[in-house]
Every structure is written in structure tokens, then in C-alpha cells.
Input
Amino acid sequence: NRHGRIINLSTQLAQRAVGGGGFAAYAATKGAVESLTRALASEVGAHGITVNAIAPGGIETDMSKDVMTPEYRTRRLAELPLRRFGSVEDVAYCAVVLAADEAGYLTGQILHPSGGWVSG
Output
């Protein structure tokens, strides 16, 4: 039984603004990725292909470390229900789950590994 997996990447910014702004175009394009994910899931499902997206937030990366002031970092941690930043590995595990045979009934979904931030 053949099947396929498409896993798109989005961001928490497609759902919720953060920081001092300047992310409008980025957020809009990631919102488009989420719409594409849902629409494409409907189009290719009959071929055994699932389409999902991962929209991480609050992930500690080299880039985020470079741009976060100590004050901003403290404020962001306080906003995260888990009170810690996620790792790149946390995001990768989501992709592993979505790619697994056991996830064959998951399609058109947006996973939010964000420490609960988008729930607030």
C-alpha cells in the first residue's frame, strides 16, 4: 500500500503576533503555507498522501539567541506555559511523528510545538 507524506513548516507568527513587529510579511506567507497545507490535504488524500505542517514557536536557535535581549528572553519565558524554550530536536520529533505509518490518518493538521504559547 503506497502512501506519501508532505510536511510543511510554518511558525507561531501565523497565529499570534510577537515582539515589536516587523514580521507582517513573514507571518502572512506562513499563514499561506497553513492554508496550502489544509487545501492540499483535501486534494491529494485520495492518493494516500497526507499533508501537515509544523508551526513552532519559542524555539531556541542560534538566530534567536543572537536577537533576544536578556529582558525579552525573560518576558518570553514567562509567556510560555512550560516556562522553557523548545529545542530544534523538539521540532524534529514532530516531523518524525507526522512521517510515521501510525500517523496515516492525520492530514490537514498544523502542529504547534510552542510550549503551549499559542494556547494563551
Notes: The mean pLDDT is 90.
